[in-house]
Amino acid sequence: MNPFLLVVILGVVEGITEFLPVSSTGHMILVEKFINCPYVSKSFMDNFLIIVQLGAIISVILYFWKDIHPFVKSKDIFKKRACLWSKIIVGVLPAGVIGLLADDYITKFFLGNTFIVALMLIIYGIILFFIEDKISKVRKINSMENISYKIAFIIGIFQCLAMIPGTSRSGATIIGALLLGLSKGVAAEFSFFLAIPTMIGATFLKLVKNGLNFTNLEWELLAVGFVVSFVVAYLVIKWFMGYIKTRTFKLFGIYRIILGVLVIILLNI
């Protein structure tokens, strides 16, 4: 396959799946597994799968900029923004600590394990399908201001589950937030906000370990993947925030289950 076509495909997959509860890492691993490109090295692809996330991160920052930036004239709004970011930092702490301690172990035993990806797709697909029927319809937390530091920290612990490929960072945090009483909209937004420092930290941790020694062609491929993931992710976020206002997460659960079963079947053919 042409390397530029490959990175466009991967950029689209990253943009679509990063913030939907379907596991971007799992999808990227599956695409890389079933689509081979002899023109790029394995080490480059490992770096590409990390760097392409930055495009999706920037799309979140841009989409929610008016709600999260600190450059406001009102002291009251500034205090609310500062409070929000302090909760985000608290929510990121579990992933930051566990990520630093367990990154090498997770990479060695789980990253690239297609069966684990398929299994996690199915397990969390089942949870997403049933979760809204099993929890109370009454949501006590309908705004960011009502999220306590304790709840933010617990949601951060749920986020750590996504270190296993196939789980989905957004899926794990949204499930945790729903169980803790957040409304769907607030759960999704807080999941997006947590993604900003979490993904930036994880990306730079990997880059420090793997280095940035790329050829001119590889830099061009990275740029294409970055732009594609940014554009697609922005459009997906806009769609998703409208979707969850009137729809459940069951569709994502069904999709995950079907995909996980198909992958297991393909692995045994």
Detail the topology: elements first, then pairings:
Elements: H1 3-17, H2 24-34, H3 42-51, H4 53-63, H5 65-68, H6 75-109, H7 114-134, H8 149-160, H9 169-179, H10 184-210, H11 216-243, H12 250-267
Helix pairs in contact: 1-2, 1-11, 2-7, 3-10, 4-10, 4-11, 6-8, 6-10, 7-9, 7-12, 8-9, 9-10
Using brief descriptors, characterize the structure shown.
269 residues
Brief synopsis:
The protein has about 270 residues and is mostly helical. About 75% of the residues lie in helices and about 0% in strands. It is globular and about 55 Å long.
Query: What is the N-to-C order of secondary-structure elements (H for helix, E for strand)?
Result: HHHHHHHHHHHH
What helical percentage do the residues reach?
Answer: over 70%
Structural class: mainly alpha
Alpha-carbon distance between the two ends: 23 Å
Q: How would you describe the shape?
A: globular
Strand content: under 5%
Query: How many beta-strand elements?
Result: 0
Largest sheet: none
Sequence stretches where pLDDT stays below 50 over 5 or more residues:
none
* Individual helix count: 12
Alpha-carbon Rg, integer: 18 Å
Describe this structure in words.
- It is globular, with a radius of gyration of 18 Å.
- 75% of the residues lie in helices and 0% in strands.
- Helix 1 packs parallel to helix 11 and helix 7 packs antiparallel against helix 12.
- The chain has one domain.
- It is an all-alpha fold and 269 residues long.
- The chain is built from 12 helices and no strands.
